[in-house]
Amino acid sequence: MISIRLILAACLFLVPVSASSEGFHGFDPATYDGLMLPPATLQAMAAEAAQHAPPKNGETLVFGFANLQRDISFGIKVEQSIERNAEAAGIELLIADNRLDGPTALANAESFARRQVDFCIEFQTDVNFGPAIMQHFNRKQIGVVAIDIPMPGAAYFGANNPRSGFMGGSYLAQAAKVRFGDRALAEGYFVVGELPQSGAIPAMRTEGQIAGFLASLSGFPPERIIRIDTKNTLQYSFQQMSNALGRIPQGAPILITAINDQSVSGMLRAVQQQGRGADALVVGKGADELETMVAEENFIASVAYFPERYGNYLIPLSLMRLAGHDVPPAVTVNHVMISPANICQFYPEYECQGEPSFDYVFPQEAFVEHLATLRDKPELAGYEQLIPDH
Q1: 3-class SS at 335?
Q2: Largest pairwise CA distance in the chain
Q3: Within 10 Å of residue 324's Cβ, how many Cβ atoms?
Q4: Who's near 382: CB < 8 A, 6+ residues apart?
């Protein structure tokens, strides 16, 4: 576990607790635009939180952040954004690496609880370890915000899984019709990289990908939909995709999407290694592997999650809860499609390349029908707040 000590001058004024989110220094999670708040605002939030829940060390608030994995692109960007916001707020930040592993995440939670952090931001992948992790925090009365994988009693921040999945799947299908014409339906294979270990909530993402794909490419045969386990890593996705290619005839269109950009990149590399890159069309998830998308002709788009903005939400949300305000049970990202043609609109450090090859249309009516099916699933009981209304 690595400790990063971030010390700034403490705020000199205190604000009493308000019952509404609008009263928390203008921060409302429901309408927030995701841009980083001014340091003075973050410091005022921290001062109010410290007044309501005095720091356990008697000096400054200490937050724990358990990262999903510290050496992958998405995790790096999330961590950096949390560091920026913690530093601006005057919070001491302790960082641990869950390394995509449930037992490691549990050990990190135990360490944070033993060190009596004031609050914890938890980013871990194994749904089965959530209750045990929360037991450690509950015993010490430590509040938690969970990223992407909900845990009992923690506030949720992360993906709008049904919508982001549906966007990616429908975009891929519409692009496939433009690229391959009638062959997309007649000969194509749709390969979806899943993450079973993370449970029913991220599964809404991959199920959304399939539902969105079928909504835009009606009549696609289910026997040509191949699901593989990605384990959330490039390497494992590469291995599983290499195996799956033996089931796909030479020359057939290979339409690929997955749980995240890392997995999609591994799957694409497997196709390329077997000399079949020209047959592939890829849509990612996360838009955190932008260099790969720009460099690879067949990596045509990714659903943006803006991990570099996560801390802009997470630190205010954590302070809001620590200050005694009601926090929404779920706060989700506003997703957009990013392609080489529009990348400069969201990431100015990249140049936009060419023109869109088609006009993407989100199948809203089909999406509403898909949401209705999710509400009837018994495995999603208790998670209704993570299913959007429309």
Answers
A1: coil
A2: 69
A3: 17
A4: none
Q: Where are the domains of the chain?
A: 2-159+308-332, 161-304+340-380
pLDDT per position as a tens digit, 280-313: 999 999 999 999 999 999 999 999 999 999 999 9
Length of the chain: 390
Q: pLDDT, tens digit, for every residue of 126-164?
A: 999 999 999 999 999 999 999 999 999 999 999 999 999
Sheet holding 155-158, edge to edge: 2-4, 92-97, 62-67, 119-122, 143-147, 155-158, 330-332
Q: What fold does the segment set 161-304+340-380 form as a domain?
A: Rossmann fold (3.40.50)
Query: d(Cα 134, Cα 138) in Å, to the nearest integer?
Result: 6
pTM, two decimal places: 0.91
* Assigned architecture for domain 2-159+308-332: 3-Layer(aba) Sandwich (3.40)
Give CA separation, 188 vs 105, 181, 183, in Å. 40, 10, 6
Q: Which residue has the tokens 């990431």?
A: 347
